[in-house]
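Checked the freezer inventory, then went back to the computational side. Two predictions to log before the end of the day. The first one is the construct we discussed on Monday; recording sequence and tokens without edits.
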Amino acid sequence: MKSAIVTGATGMIGSQVVKLLLEKGVNVTAIVRPMSEKMRNLEAFKVSSSDNKNYGKLNIVECSLWELPSLRDKLGWEHDTLFHFGWGYTFGTGRNDAPKQEENIRAAIDAVHLAYEAGCKTFVGAGSQAEFGFTESKLTDSLPKDPVTGYGIAKLAACKLTQLECRNLGMKHNWGRILSCYGPGDNDYTMVMAAVRSMLKGERMQFTPAEQVWDYIYAEDCAKAFIAIAESGVDRKAYTIGSGEPRLMKEYIYAIRDAIDPSLEVGIGEREYNDNQVMHLVADISELVNDTGYKPSTTFEEGIRKTVEWAKANP
């Protein structure tokens, strides 16, 4: 890979992909939402890129996800891979708003056409565990999909339709379904970052009984998985991205507490589970490992220490 396009480039995973690609000497066009408050993350990469001759070049392009067709013939250089992380309405009422999720499907298809016109041979899209719905099985693409949210339905539709468009255009297509991801740049509304923020203030946070069996992956490891998929993934395959090492939710919570202050009290069992709580969320990463050679390398304890340090520096 010599040159890549990354949509959603200021997000937690997208920004890590940009960073890792630049360090590999890959030139990157980062497509970001106009006036994004996270633009400073990419600006720091741009300074590093200009100071180090071994880094790739970074070109930051401001463009709404809904206006990707306007970028045709405006990206500056030839590209070979497009990573599509951009997605709107990921939380709140928009998550189950059909017309809004339809916009995301349209944008994903627009991203395929942008990739083709920019000379890309490979399209890699970011999916979600929400595409599966409820299941007690380890998540792998061979499982039946029965999404129960508008977000999950739209992600699955985007997977299938972008695959169809890539086939029609003669491009390689891959899809990475992300389980629970955490790390620097995480949104404050996630369980991990909400717990980190609260515990850093010395607050006693209330949790559910936390008996869920979940699979968290560190953001940098997740980004490495997407790059491995782009480079070595089998055409038209969708890969599940997780650590492959599930734990009880309460174990994650105690690990967060221990990284901040082992003496803090945590209110395990003081809240009820949410309606339709997902109790089993575990990745089968065997195909990802076999096809690409990729393996996660960051333990939750190591990753959460780095996440806490980032949160301290970014209050």
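The second is the one RB wanted added to the comparison set:
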Amino acid sequence: MISQSDRGPGRAGPFALLVVVLLAGACANPSLPSASPSLPPSSLGIFSPAPSDLPSELPSLGPSDGPTPTVTPLPSPSPSSTAQASCAQQVLRGMTVAQRIGQLFSLGLANDKLGTAELSAIRNQHVGSVWFTATTTVGLAGIRTVTNAIQAQATKAATGGVRMYIAANQEGGQVQALRGTGFSTIPSAVVQGGRPIGTLTSQARVWGSQLVAAGVNMDFAPVADVVPPGGDSTNQPIGVLMREYGHDPTTAGTHAAAFIAGMAAAGIDMTAKHFPGLGRVLNNTDFSANVVDNVTTAHDPYLGSFEDTIQAGVPFVMVALATYTKIDPNHLAAFSPTVMNLLRSQLGFRGVIVSDSLTAVAVASMPAGDRAIDFLLAGGDIVVVRSATTMVAMVAAVQARAATDTSFLHLVNEAALLVLEAKSAAGLLPPGC
């Protein structure tokens, strides 16, 4: 596991700044689009192509959450700061530590259903986000039935009344999880990358509006990875599946940014992936361990495509499960403080860092709890996990660590605040904060 001394730079200061400078304003809470007619629950089918201001005293952990940690009170803001905390800060204050930890997890929906295990995870582990794990042709109305049921679980007891991020892998081509009536057939990123920027933005807005109508508010896309010219046939995670927007960072970056702009205009929060890039590896981390990139450096031109997505305002960046020997040979990227620092300090990303799936083969040999803790220690914010069983073990480990380690609890609170700020911008916080 990552030691205390290995920790990354945190989240580029938003939490510390918010402790001193309180943001004024009220919660925006736009209503979801009207639901499509209810359909019977369906076996639906994200696509795996190959397999601040905190209160001066934090609320105690609930009876089932373990011992109460010793917490050094944070300094109170001066009267001259401002009179009102932001909505996210207000919501964070009212949450138990267990609820805050729940905001740091995105759970896969087995068979794209809200099943017993998923319901239990939301109610008992307070999970704050979910994602569709399989490809389905059930169509927009069928997906809307599932998303309505999911948002109905965002109760005061479960999530502090904070609604869910509901995500899908809606890239296009072979990686379009949601299909059927009401969803356009989206071309592959390779095809999208050959279209004019304005055209792609307009098309992405249409695709995004379909997701919104289905109750989906987050897309695990676009891929900002760059596959070198001639490398498609040997690059299993990206090139073989035609997931890249281009074979140079400019084409890839500008078209990924155009995709983001269109989807964002429709109301979808986007996720640039897989930082710092899977375009130069051979194997897919979903199905292979020890995936290594021996080329990419901390000042590599291929990082330019990610910089373009950040400048486009992408709110989420997903970090890969490969090892980058010229950046940090000792950690997978998702567990690397060096990689997180590169993303935060050098590229200037101020949003939410999410993991690639921590149930992938690339990390399967690690104890489940260590995966989640090491990601958070490195500077990550949302743990993406496919299996409810694995997620329950991860949450228990994070809760136990937070109950005994004040500095780790501080990281949890920083990450939870960042997630809640993103949800505030997305209109997912309770009315009135």
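For RB: DSSP finds 14 helices and 13 strands in the chain. The radius of gyration is 20 Å. Let me know if you want it refolded.
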